Design the sequence.
């Protein structure tokens, strides 16, 4: 008897259900009696559900099974679906392209969101709220710099970056920044050692 390999057979639209389930679906499509076809489809749904019992409590699990059945039949199964299935034209519809942020980022290690927030913060009226937000921003900037390059993570650099990103609207002295970030536990030297050991560990894992 000549062997037939899966690579020579019809491609499975839903490989996770296997070829036996696909054969049952193909047979159900060929049934002429509508009532019998309906009963076979419902039996197939039971089999498909039993293959993944861990997902039975997931919302819309049964709905997904009927959608999968329609897909496996190439939307040729003429039955009374108990749910509104996703039709072929909708299933093959390409998703809308995402609008990616294309504007240049002044300092990439801070990220675009922080840069936008800093520019908005520069327009805030002077007062306690602005001072508190500025403290949070300065702390975050220093942490980002410690992770990116601990050797240049200095108060002087953070102060200069704040002034640069706001076109001089936010002027913070190094003494003020040092007082605001004094509670930070991570020091540049420790961060450098941690960063170095992390790189060595990754290099060893790649060799393995």
Sequence:
């Amino acid at each position: 008897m000549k062997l037939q390999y899966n690579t020579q057979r019809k491609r499975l639209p839903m490989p996770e259900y296997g070829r036996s389930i696909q054969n049952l679906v193909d047979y159900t499509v060929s049934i002429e009696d509508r009532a019998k076809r309906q009963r076979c489809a419902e039996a197939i749904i039971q089999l498909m559900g039993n293959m993944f019992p861990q997902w039975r409590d997931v919302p819309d699990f049964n709905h997904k099974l009927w959608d999968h059945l329609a897909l496996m039949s190439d939307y040729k199964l003429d039955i009374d679906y108990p749910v509104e299935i996703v039709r072929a034209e909708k299933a093959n519809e390409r998703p809308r392209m995402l609008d990616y942020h294309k504007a240049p980022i002044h300092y990439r290690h801070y990220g675009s969101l922080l840069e936008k927030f800093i520019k908005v913060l520069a327009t805030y009226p002077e007062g306690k709220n602005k001072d508190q937000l500025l403290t949070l921003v300065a702390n975050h900037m220093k942490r980002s710099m410690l992770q990116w390059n601990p050797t240049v993570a200095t108060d002087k650099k953070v102060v200069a970056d704040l002034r640069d990103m706001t076109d001089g609207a936010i002027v913070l002295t190094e003494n003020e920044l040092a007082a605001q970030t004094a509670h930070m536990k991570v020091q540049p030297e420790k961060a450098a050692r941690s960063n170095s050991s992390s790189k060595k560990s990754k290099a060893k894992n790649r060799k393995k």
Observations:
- Confidence is low (pLDDT under 50) at residues 185-192.
- The radius of gyration is 30 Å.
